[in-house]
């Protein structure tokens, strides 16, 4: 079974929140995308929300 690739997420946020996010990511030497993912994962862990990894049924060639 192969693990699915990442997916795109388009969202709108206030410019000042975007700038704060950029600064937070820069301080931790992360991309903005990676910072968003980290924050979501941390939120889910704190609130006991499971993150279930999806897999595909792919057959070897």
Radius of gyration: 15 Å
- Largest beta-sheet characterization: 2 strands, antiparallel
SSE topology string: EHHE
Q: Tell me, what's the shape?
A: extended
List unreliable stretches of 5+ residues: none
Describe the strand arrangement of the main beta sheet, using strand numbers: 1-2
Average pLDDT: 89
Quantity of strands, as a count? 2
Percent strand: 5-15%
Please name the defining characteristics of this protein.
two-stranded antiparallel ribbon; mainly alpha; 46% helix; 7% strand; 61 residues
Question: What does this entry look like structurally?
Answer:
With 61 residues, the protein is mainly α. Helix content is 46%, strand content 7%. The protein has a two-stranded antiparallel sheet with strand order 1-2. It is extended and about 45 Å long. The model has no long low-confidence stretch (mean pLDDT 89).
Layout: helices, strands, pairs:
Blueprint: E1 2-3, H1 15-27, H2 32-46, E2 55-56
Would you summarize the structure shown here?
The chain has 61 residues and is mainly alpha-helical.
């Amino acid at each position: 079974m192969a693990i699915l690739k990442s997916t795109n997420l388009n969202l709108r946020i206030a410019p000042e929140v975007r700038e704060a996010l950029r600064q937070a990511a820069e301080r931790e030497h992360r991309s903005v995308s990676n910072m968003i993912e980290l924050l979501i994962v941390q939120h889910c862990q704190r609130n006991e929300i499971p993150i279930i990894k999806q897999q595909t049924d792919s057959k070897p060639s």
